[in-house]
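Bumping with the actual sequence this time:
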Amino acid sequence: MSRVLERLLMEDLHAWDKLVADYEERNRKLVVPMENTTETLHIFNIQLSELYTQVYYDFARAKRNRDAIQRFLESVLKDYYSGPNPDARRAGGIQFAREYPAPEFWPFPKVNLFEIEDIWNKYYYLLDATIATLKMKAESKITNNSILRLEKQLV
């Protein structure tokens, strides 16, 4: 039995769902300030930095899990079945991956590796989207800061 699969199945998916929802909500509430003052931009920068740091570490965990299930699934699809040709071997691997033997602690005798892959793809892409929007907000803040400096020079 694969330790990777055991590790992935032991993850608390409800906690992951709550985590990504919390990040999404906090990200939506974090708005680039319309008022360009040193104070507003500084406060925004602190909030942005805190959120980005938290999200990025969880993104790394999600990426690790996503990569692990993809490597595991690839191994199952390529290595577990023999057959007269590549298509027959792949078909056998797909069937096996859909009903892969579960570890003893799992409440069901089989797990669908494709469903596990889908779950980790979801967390990976949701956190990736959060990081992308945070980077966009950081760039907007830099633009606003530049505008503030220009305004000071003109006055």
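The tokens above came from a reply further down the thread. The helical segments are 3-10, 13-29, 38-79, 86-98, 113-154.
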